[in-house]
């Protein structure tokens, strides 16, 4: 009855998996029916994998899979595409590929490989020819299966090197006695003096007691002296060691032997206690106490010199009461590459459609495509065969290539270059490489290609973001923001999930989101430090990642459950310093920074490590180029109707979400240009945000990598941002294109900027040089308007319609002043005891009011343009800095709260303020973008024909002006060189400062320190250097 129920459940599981995969539309992992070639139909009607035919186990209830008439038959295969193993067919490409795929190895017999090792290779002297590089011989690593490459080795190390005992390996003497086994045999740590304070063993290893060398924990109490002092086998260390259930501990030692070897007439214990009577017991091998079945219940019983020993057969374990044996479910651990079926005392493996079982555990794609390793290496991208035997440079002369991925069906390769700050695309095999994202990037560390939805995801680690574009690099959309330092990325389009690693200053973690950025979830955030690499097992839905701090590789389910170590742990080969990983079949391929290598990790064989590629120059990302890594399922975004981006979604109805590029907003499924948003200088960044319903998203492509951005403004007509950093003026388009340095000479500290959108000029304050200046928006013509009687000019705003300019001054006599936009008719309009540090300044054009923030008194004030009608708007602010007013709301940045706030202007209490952005440091000036601030072409300067500068004045008038050193000619429009006008005096620098050639001032201790602090290098080419 139990067998019938198990079979019924088994059939139900098969049908359930089939219908589940059919429902999801996934072709890659669909379960084959009995009519398909992957399965066999039992006489009783069950479906089993053909791999289980004639394997000695009856998997059909009626045993028809093991009947002699079936097993005696030679399976007939198509001679053109398949090869017969007798009991099954394998792809013809697997014949004579130096890997035994048939159970009896017939696919590798009678092979004429017709291959000799090349001049730079040696043969391994094995039955099937295998060649390895000559440089791998005598290096302390057994690369041949029989260790032939490490025999008869000798080498003379130089005086500064240490010679390892195994192989002909020389290491630096600095590595000797450092607590790490730098020689493969650990000989560099033998005979070392104790120095417990200076050595720390890696995770999974322990110190020897006196010699202080590190050995794997699994080497303890294994009857081999791995420590030079023998402490790993000392009685004190081994006192708590327990033998396995089917083992017996020798009576005079901690040695364990198989229980079946006890009382068998041959001595197996070193103290011979397994064959003699125990001195303190009346039991002996001659007694037979196992006849009393109550001693062991249903378990096996063995007579020993110490009495009876109850035990279970392999594949079973004792129950809680130790009276009977219960089956061990080996499938709870990763023992099979794909599908695992638990059987009484054992287990069986099988493979999903498209794969075939190899060596009882592994699954191999049935196609004939040879897999290829792709590796980025700083200045090049190379490909290699999976054994490292053949390597080629695909793309060279790169600056600093890091992240790498591909689209197999379209034969496209994508990679990032963090030096060029670009994302590139090329066709596999082609030498033509072109940038597809070349603006608004600073540190693109990770990349992942969605080969179904046809989008590219990438991380911007300095900006704490994950962005997405289409395959052409268009329609850039910010998917996730305010992360720490995201690096690794991986997507599973069939499940519509995105996974990422984050190891910034915030809590390091492994995260998962829907591929549209929704439904994000933290999978792992404990016992994790530097999660560098990430890759996915699409078939088994598992996430693998490498932690470069612990030098371990972990795995977890897509749900975040069942975390465990798969490589580098106790009893496993060490993983020196993993950077990137990829998966193919049941092997992880890893780039390593310490040894500058690529190695393969066998997941099903205790994380066994095999070196593949050596002597690399800082290997970075790695991918396995093969169609099995990019199987296809339903594209829910196809024909969905999105005008810009269609993002696969695991949470949205319909499986797809439309998304818009930065600077646009979604209306239905169409993207339209934004009419209003908030722009803020964040010291190291310039950002634009849309705040809506408690959420935020980017309105401009972030400007990253700045040093001290304070002032910012914008121009609607050309969609440009203008900003200072730190003593230069820049502009850039909202989409990140056309970054230009406008002015870089004779600038001190630019604290305020204002764009005149009518006359097309830029005004700014300089707090160090105590000036107010103006220039055309392109920076070509520049002039100082006011240069006297300043304390510390800071914020500045313009009103082109009335031709007036306003600024705040928070020197010894803080005040707010105004003048005409040509610098004439200067007036002090607001001052007094309630004026402290007037920081933010703005104009409400709709009500003709001037608003400002006082950071000393922590309040917001307003007044008329003549300074009259002064009143308090909001009080009890924390520490406000920037301010803008628009559409009935005040927006301000706050240094103390590290936040951006908004409040209605008719509110009188700051308690009713709305927090728009939180936990963001370095907040400076703030501006609200409004699309209406654009000239209609009707202003005094539009027809003035000034040759250099046209400056607006009240009463709809203007003044033509000229750059420094020039004056207006007699025609009132043209500019001529001012012969009698002396060159502007260079501002002097404060004490303990050095004046650069460009008039900048830097601290004198920065002189001749190797850094270009002046930004013209004059501090490094001075005579004092």
From TrEMBL:
It is a single-pass membrane protein. Keywords: Disulfide bond, EGF-like domain, Endocytosis, Glycoprotein, Membrane, Receptor, Repeat, Signal, Transmembrane, Transmembrane helix. It comes from the Eukaryota. One of its GO terms (molecular function) is calcium ion binding. LDL-receptor class B repeats lie at residues 454-495, 496-540, 719-759, 760-802, 803-847, 848-889. Its main location: membrane. Disulfide bonds join 42-60, 77-89, 96-111, 138-153, 177-192, 989-1001, 996-1014. One of its GO terms (biological process) is receptor-mediated endocytosis. It is found in: Membrane. GO terms for cellular component: apical plasma membrane; receptor complex. PANTHER family: LOW-DENSITY LIPOPROTEIN RECEPTOR-RELATED PROTEIN 2-RELATED, MEGALIN, ISOFORM A. This is Low-density lipo receptor-related 2-like.
